[in-house]
Amino acid sequence: MSLLMTPKPSGQYMNYVQSLPSPCIDHFDQRTGLEKETIAGYTNKASKHCDKVKYEGEFSVPSTFGEVGAVVVENEHLKEMYLHNIVLTPAGDNATSLTIDCRSWVHSKFDNPEKRVFFTSKSYLPSQTPSGLERFRKKELANIRGDGTGERKPFERIYDYDTYNDLGDPDKSEDLARPVLGGSKEFPYPRRCRTGRPRTKKDPLSEERSSSIYIPRDESFSEVKGLTFSGTAFRSVLNVVVPSIKTAINDTKLSFPYFTAIDSLFNEGVKLPKQEGLSFFRTIIPRIIKTLEDSTDNVLHFETPEMIDRDKFAWLRDEEFSRQILAGVNPFSIQLVTEFPFVSKLDPEVYGPAESAITAKLIEREILGVMTVEEALKKKRLFILDYHDQVLPYVHKVRELEDMTLYASRTVFFLTSDEALMPIAIELTRPASHTKPQWRQVFTRCWDATEPYIIAANRQLSAMHPIYRLLHPHFRYTMEINAMARQSLISAGSIMETCFSLGKYSIEFSAIAYGQLWRFDMEALPADLIRRGMAVEDPTAEHGLRLTIKDYPFANDGLLIWSSIQQWVGDYVNRYYPTASDVMADHELQAWWEDVRTKGHADKKDEPWWPTVASPSELTQVVKKINSVLHPQNVNEGANYASDKLRD
């Protein structure tokens, strides 16, 4: 038997040499299915290569032992260790080794006396679990769920829920107080991973901030990923660079006085005061920062966007504006116009008249009278970006912030006969106040010129469950990214509040959008495209959908990925669940889906649109949606893993 491990960083290696981990093999009798007495022993250090240490041990196993079901490990070091794999090699020249893929941190027994269990790669539905493993399966899940009390410790692997109550810092300043997102009708929100930190003194509903945020130990970045996405390093660099940029600019309230001033960001750069550590900024965001050299004067050069390389004034053109709507950073919002005229659903007594200033006459004028509005609606030629009702309640709040302004907006587009999308009207609205009536204006063209699934899966699905093994590669790094975002990106006074139009209300606004717009059944491409009128079902078309706008890169490329996911997820699910009764009988699976709905999305648990998981096809649809909305970079890894399992 051999164990491949990675020691902790420098200064802890001797602990691994001086003390030994103690594994024991758990097994089950193939004839009776009952748990046998475990075979225990110690391993000794055998070799070391780079940062990997190999431990070996021998066990006397009777010939009647049967098939190995799991290995239980106890780490007798003073510090945690990272266990890559366990290889069981029977004696004999023709013996076949059994490799158990662990890739997990194992805590020291001095931190927690509970032993770790690692199952073989063979997957079992709960009802098919051999009796010899059943106790370990249940106990492992109970350990992972925890009891919902106490502050989490760094070495723990507990997955539990909490609201987003750690974005503000009211003890530091009243200006940094933020509402709790989740758990209320006013601010519904998905749940995050519970940390159990103490509550703030000034707001008993909010949790204290800290320099680090708990995530289950195995959710943290790998060493390589950590070096390129270090929250601590990123924050420390920002603390240097941002004040330096502010120092370099005489008046931060000034806009660019002329176009060549924008060019200077790329050509001449911004001179910064001499400070240590500035050069590291480029290693963190190399696609934005072109060069940043430590010299007498640090000069910050920004990478020229490819679009500007092609056409310096492309960003001023209507064609580029339309292209960004379909192929830019947010291609999820454009919708087909199905009702006209546009009418707000907000209270007119509070916000002013509900009718839009975009009229049929205006639209027909802007499309040069090629058709009436009624004809354009029938032919699916009108589209809209509509932020009016979501943004309008925040306009006055944001305008009270220093150097901030905001309008609610609607933008209408027309699809020309040659499949080109063109903006024809932008409506800006400021709601009525105690002193002023509602103001709105339409601007026309100038003719001259995107965590609960992860927590639920770990809480309710055993590591040997086939659906857990299917989803697990897609969960990679999500929880740590989420924790770092709460700490540095979306918290009070963070970058997002500085850069986004809604300022300190930016994340609060996302809770409003979640409450009004988010539906699980409309997640992922096919349903989302159909909901927005950007596609219609067509059995004769590729992927079974016909796009309303043919040149829609987001949809064109995304549907290719969706179709691939659909095929291999369907094959995988059908292998383990031949019938609907198999799905319904899986208590872990049903508990997982219940956890997602009633705890992960507790504020929407009673919505009628939640799908059931009562058949293989329904399970396939649910898993497909979850796979597709998680990290795209993990799709190939998950697909390869599933393919390997199917071949096995």
Keywords for this structure?
4 domains, 5-stranded antiparallel β-sheet, 648 residues, metal ion binding, 34% helix, Nuclear Transport Factor 2, Chain: A, alpha+beta, globular
For this structure, the CATH topology of the largest domain is Lipoxygenase-1
Strand order of the largest sheet: 4-5-1-7-8
Integer tally of domains: 4
Total beta-strand segments? 21
CATH superfamily of the largest domain: PLAT/LH2 domain
Number of helices in the DSSP assignment: 24
Largest sheet: 5 strands, antiparallel
Class of the largest domain, according to the CATH hierarchy?
A: Mainly Beta
Question: What fraction of the residues are assigned to beta strands by DSSP?
Answer: 15-25%
Helix content: 25-40%
Rg over CA atoms: 29 Å
Average of per-residue pLDDT values: 81
Shape estimate: globular
Structural class by SSE content: alpha+beta
CATH hierarchy: architecture of the largest domain: Sandwich
Could you give the distance between the termini? 23 Å
Low-confidence stretches: 7-22, 280-296, 631-648
Task: Tell me what the structure shows.
The chain is an alpha+beta fold and 648 residues long. It folds into four domains: 12-145, Sandwich (Lipoxygenase-1); 223-310; 318-444, Nuclear Transport Factor 2, Chain: A, CATH 3.10.450; 519-643, no CATH class. The strands form six sheets. It has a five-stranded antiparallel beta sheet, with no helix packed on it. It has a five-stranded antiparallel beta sheet with strand order 15-16-17-18-19, with helices on both faces. A four-stranded antiparallel beta sheet has the order 3-2-6-9, covered by helices on one side.
